[in-house]
Amino acid sequence: MIGYVDTEQMYVELLNYYGRHSFRPREILEREIAERVSAGMSREEAIAALYREVFGTPKQLSGERGASLEEALESLKAAKRDYSTLVAAIWVVLAMLTAAASASGYLDYTAAALVLFSLLASAAVLRLQGRGGKWVWREVLSFEGVGEYWKDFMELIPRIYQKLSLRNVKCEIEDETLILRMSFLTTVTMLYKSGPQTLTVDLGPFTVKATFRNIGGTLYVEAVYEGRPPVAYADHAALAYERAIATFRAALEEAYELVKPRAVVVVNFAELAELLASKGLVVAAVRCPYCGGSVELPKEGDTTKCPYCGTALKAIDLYRALKEVIRGL
What is the pTM of this model? Predict the structure, then answer.
């Protein structure tokens, strides 16, 4: 199931930051979080505080600089409205100049100014009409329990996306990053003196760049969507982008259903102890999958807490950590 996250996104960005400065980014990050938890913060507060220290004011993490998808798409539509307003203003000025030329006694000078303005205005409109403005929006999505299958998950996406979108998509995979490249065409109706005409318009390139990371058994997908639409058709591009993003999310959901474990073997610590005992194993403590600290296994319940980093750990999480030991189950 997709989770639209905020604290987890800050965690991913911090992990990326430490990954540029260390070969063991997760260990360093968890140590920094653990220090703040030991000072009395919750894990969420510690991540937010560390994010402030590294990047400054925490951004609202549902889009680029706090914008929701709806807000980001609305800004794209606003660009089209601004363009339409400019075109209308140019036509008004042209009409005023034409009227002035008719009423003026200096017809030659007024006509020359009218022609010059018309040429400059037409050039400006044509330039704006074809100019591709950069549009970017980002989000982080989480999928519980499939982090270790991130590579299978990532490799499924292009085929599923192409099936759902019914369009040709160019795919590139670079380490943990999947890049989908596509372009959009749309039809618009233009009104001419000879009558309405339907034109096919290129809305420019659109890219989905998704990075897949396994953090504590949860898969995090950091998706960055980028388009370069011509401003004259930005409203059409907004609709196309909204469908493309919805399709990518649907592809993630379908991939999740294909790779997620079909059954949960362990639901509490008592069952975990029985499972280990049936294999002749007695385990008093395990390593925390987040910070590596030693965590004693309780005799009952389904959740415990790491005494070092303060992370809440479920029995199923520790079962996965022990899976190599009890591979035969």
Answer: 0.56
